[in-house]
Specification:
The complex is a heterodimer. By secondary structure, chain A is mainly alpha-helical. Chain A has 2 domains: 54 residues, no CATH class; 217 residues, MetI-like (MetI-like fold, Orthogonal Bundle), CATH 1.10.3720.10. In chain A, helix 3 packs across helix 8. Chain A is flat. Chain B is mainly α. Chain B has one domain: MetI-like fold, CATH 1.10.3720. In chain B, helix 4 packs antiparallel against helix 5, helix 4 crosses helix 9 and helix 4 packs across helix 10. The longest helix of chain B is centred in the last third of the chain and has 37 residues. The radius of gyration of chain B is 22 Å and the shape is globular. The relative contact order of chain B is 0.13. The N terminus of chain B is likely disordered. The chains are: A mainly alpha, B mainly alpha.
Chain lengths: 274, 259
């Protein structure tokens, strides 16, 4: 009995240890987040932080659930999603074309280089007032702001991806006498895909930041506007509920994109190794 | 951005054509701006001449100095906090592999949320005034500084660590003579991003619920539908941010060449 049980137990322990080593980073990360939430809960419940200015996370969650369930803000959520989605589509399309253009025309790229490198140093939000003057106070300035914020990241990453297509692959294409279209379809696009995907990821994240930021500062509807509106009316439960929804949504989106991106890059590394 | 910087630094163009390219870029932008101004009408989009006139009027306004000082004070304090805080957190997370692995995705997630929507929390905790702006600017700047410093410390070559041990340097000497110089280029790259985000955070903070500063002037100009002033302030911020950013880029390139 004992002799039979021992190895089994040892294997079980080894499995457990193995699982711990493999997942310990994820487990610890979850623990850190849980601890932070618990600390906030305790700090607010025990009155270390003023309950008027910061409500306990459990009440935030309840409020977020209520907002989602009652559907009061459905129209605003959809408006924000539409504006950001439109900005993403425009930025990805034009950013990709712009990146290809920069790759094909090195002279243009050399001239524009300082602009590309310092583009994100400029707080693009200062343009928002001008966009309102140009388009009027409606949804278009927000779409334009999201587009402007995202398009250069897409272009720079497309350019980066095209530059990093390994020379040996291009030589192979020439050796196999691939036509122009075949070379693009079989070599250039797959090889630059991870970098282009990084561009798409950034375009999505930046578009959301710009649209919600624009709504928050100055607009008449949308998710960002509702947060600002709740703040101005001292409606803290609604404000924190909306913020929590935003955090969960953007966080989940980001995790998803990050995971997809990692997979693309890993595939690329494996291909390079073999 | 940093990946691109690295590929750029390998290509050393002679300085004279680069200057010409710069001139060409500025000229092209001015021409495009003027054309757009004619297209939309000068009342909607003021042209370069009108904008620079308005900028001169703004700058010579006696009130302007106080607004600039307010923004400058908030911005520099926020930048100092981001720099020092980001460097300390980055070194700690970079030196401990496990801690770095645990916190890196959390930092990236924090980096990508629209922090502007969280500004009310900052306002509620710090109250209206300059401290809320500083806190908000630092919130934007500290995360990229941490991420870049962490990467820099992690990527220090093991031979450097061994040479610290061989020379029996104290922790302080090792940091001063080996670790900090080795990590410097990445830290400067982080400073570039941190600089621009801190500026963005400070300005956004001023655009929402503030009575003083450049951001407040911008909002006031929007309320009055004063296109030349909006354009003048935007151009001023553009020039400031671009010049500092290009300066930091030069510094970054020089450090990498030296390394």
């Amino acid at each position: 009995m004992i002799a039979a049980a021992l190895p089994h137990e040892a294997v079980g322990q080894a499995d457990l240890k193995h699982a711990w080593l493999r997942h310990r980073v994820a487990v610890l990360r979850a623990a850190v987040v849980a601890l932070a939430v618990l600390l906030l809960e305790a700090a607010t419940r025990l009155g270390w932080i003023d309950q008027v200015s910061f409500i306990p996370p459990s009440r935030m969650a309840a409020s977020a659930w209520h907002i989602l369930w009652s559907g009061t803000y459905k129209a605003d959520i959809l408006l924000t999603l539409y504006a950001a989605g439109l900005a993403v589509i425009l930025a990805v399309t034009f950013g990709f074309l712009f990146g290809v253009l920069l790759f094909k025309l090195p002279r243009l790229r050399r001239v524009l280089d300082p602009l590309l490198l310092s583009y994100y140093a400029v707080p693009i939000f200062v343009l928002y007032p001008m966009l309102i003057v140009l388009f009027g106070l409606n949804r278009w300035p927000l779409v334009a702001l999201g587009f402007l914020f995202a398009v250069v990241a897409m272009a720079v990453n497309t350019l980066n991806g095209l530059e990093r297509v390994p020379a040996v692959l291009l030589r192979t294409a020439r050796m196999l006498r691939l036509g122009r279209a075949q070379e693009v379809r079989l070599i250039t696009l797959p090889a630059s895909l991870p970098f282009v995907f990084t561009g798409i990821k950034l375009a999505i994240v930046y578009s959301f930041i710009a649209v919600i930021g624009g709504e928050f500062v100055l607009s008449g509807a949308g998710f960002g506007y509702q947060i600002a509106y709740a703040y101005n009316n001292f409606d803290n439960p609604t404000m924190y509920g909306l913020m929590l929804l935003l955090l969960v949504f953007v966080g989940a989106l980001n995790l998803l994109l990050h995971a997809m991106e990692q997979r693309l890059y890993q595939r690329r590394v494996l291909k390079e190794l073999t | 951005m940093s990946a691109q910087t690295r590929t750029q630094s390998g290509m050393q163009a002679p300085s004279a054509p680069r200057l010409n390219d710069g001139m060409l870029l500025i000229a092209a932008m001015l021409v495009l701006w003027q054309l757009a101004s004619w297209g939309f009408g000068a009342a909607v989009l003021p042209g370069p001449v009108r904008t620079f006139q308005q900028l001169w009027t703004q700058v010579s306004d006696p009130e302007f100095g106080a607004h600039l000082a307010e923004t400058g004070k908030a911005f520099l304090s926020a930048l100092a906090i981001s720099l020092i805080g980001g460097a300390i957190m980055g070194v700690l997370l970079g030196a401990r592999r496990l801690a770095g692995d645990v916190f890196e995705p959390l930092l990236i997630a924090l980096y990508s949320i629209p922090k502007i929507a969280l500004y009310p929390i900052v306002l509620l905790l710090f109250g209206l005034g300059v401290s809320a702006k500083i806190a908000f600017g630092a919130m934007h700047g500290i995360i990229p500084m941490t991420i870049f410093t962490m990467t820099a410390v992690r990527n220090i070559r093991p031979v450097y660590m061994r040479s610290i041990r061989t020379h029996r340097l104290t922790a302080w000497q090792g940091a001063m003579h080996v670790l900090i110089p080795a990590a410097m280029p990445e830290v400067v790259a982080g400073l570039r991003i941190g600089f621009s985000l801190t500026l963005l955070g400070t300005l956004l903070g001023e655009m929402f619920a503030s009575q003083r500063g450049i951001g407040h002037l911008l909002m006031r100009a929007i309320d009055r539908n004063d296109a030349p002033t909006i354009m003048a302030l935007a151009v001023m911020l553009f020039l400031f941010a671009t010049i500092v950013s290009l300066g930091l880029l030069q510094w970054d390139r020089r450090l990498r060449r030296g390394a």
